[in-house]
Amino acid sequence: MMMKTEKKDKSRREFLKKVATVVVGTAAASVIKPFNAIVYATAPKKDSEHWYGMGIDLDKCIGCGRCADACKQENGVPREPFFFRTWVEQYTIKENGEVVVESPNGGIDGFKQSVPDNEIFKSFFVPKMCNHCAHSPCVQVCPVGATYESPDGVVLVDDTYCIGCRYCVQACPYGCRYIHPERHVVDKCTLCYHRIKKGLRPACEDACPRKAKIFGDLRDKNSELVKFLKEHTCLVLRPHLNTGAKVYYNSLSTEVR
Amino acid sequence: MDPLIQNLYNVLTQVQGYIYPNEVELHWSLLIVLYPYITGLVAGAFILASLERVFRVKEVRPTYELSLITALALLLTATLPLVSHLTKPFRAYEIMITPHPTSAMAIFGFVYLWYLMVVLLLEIWFDYRRDFVIWSQEKTGIMKWVYKILTLGVMDVSPETLKWDERLGRIVTIIGIPSAFLLHGYVGFIFGSIKAFAGGSGSDTPLLRS
User: Fold this and answer.
1) φ/ψ of residue A155, rounded to 5
2) d(CA A216, CA A223)
3) Strand partners, A147
4) What is the ipTM of this complex?
5) What is the DSSP letter of A180?
6) Predicted local distance difference test score (pLDDT) of residue A189
7) Nearest CA of chain A to the CA of B187: how many Å?
8) CB contact under 8 A, B94 and A243
9) What are the chain A neighbours of B93 within 8 Å (beta carbons)?
10) Running DSSP on this structure, what letter comes out for residue B115?
């Protein structure tokens, strides 16, 4: 008889212990949940249908600046030379190894070579734009979450939510963000999200006379972009920062920053 | 022409070498620098108060109340330059109600609140509670009610209770010393967690700033 009571007590205690564990565990999990990005330190699995990126063939770029101009027209970017969603840089490597970079008005008005011909080793153009990083430093630092990554891999800004603290402008290693002087919120390349969702191509790609920009879906094995990546040796900018950049450059020289 | 744009054209003529076109505008300037300056004064004033409270340095006893009130006044104004720096200042409260947990700046709101609510206000309340009770009985009119509210309903001024006030105030000050370092060093963390900023990004930045 004595034995039986003891056993019963023990099982009740075990049961209470289990209940307490579940209750405390659930409570703890619900507290931790909003912070799970810190706790688990990984991004959620991306299983969307599309995963957009851009390829840029530097061998084809002639530095006409049509892409930068088209972008400004399409997206209402101010015309002043300090606000760009995309722009073109001219790199000139001198015979003595010195690197000269120029981008007057983002290349919209064309380029003039300032280095005398006999000093030039090589020269090329580099169109720049938001890299739509998979681990964006800008998304990470936004204090209110106004900058976010869309399920199809495009980094966007919620205009109605941005407080204009400029932390993301500081955080972007590619200099792709600016504060819009009229709307007073941060602005950046959206990969022409309003166009690509309708099946159109981004304005900069559409305007390129040499087809140096190749927009595409990285999930679609038959897309032009995947084909481009297969056929060329492509690199991203600043790979050491581990931003997961999705703008791939063919023939990228190490001098390009 | 917009003065900002006019100014940027002037800046553009002074740019040497190459920077990204979007970086011609200097985004974090004087208003941001003011913040570490003001919190530096807050932390300094608080350390002065804790010299008396925790380390019993009798020479600085006359400055005790003044330094605490100075710390509170400056901490309340410290956020003004930050908020006025925002291009959408009326959305500033979003940092507190919808914080983004991976952002150093969002968590800063809570570090600031910790220092304001748990350290400074609590310590000052323990120090002034006896005075609040006395003033709430002496004064008339609105001020009587202001002091009455400030006592938070604790009207007991027996020597025993005052001893507790002193003891709890000391504990808060002891917690406050590392908190002062945290508040000030956190500015360094905000800068240091920016990958793109080669000059400031690094694990030693919070230490250098504190």
Assistant:
1) -85, 120
2) 6
3) A157
4) 0.83
5) -
6) 96
7) 13
8) no
9) none
10) I
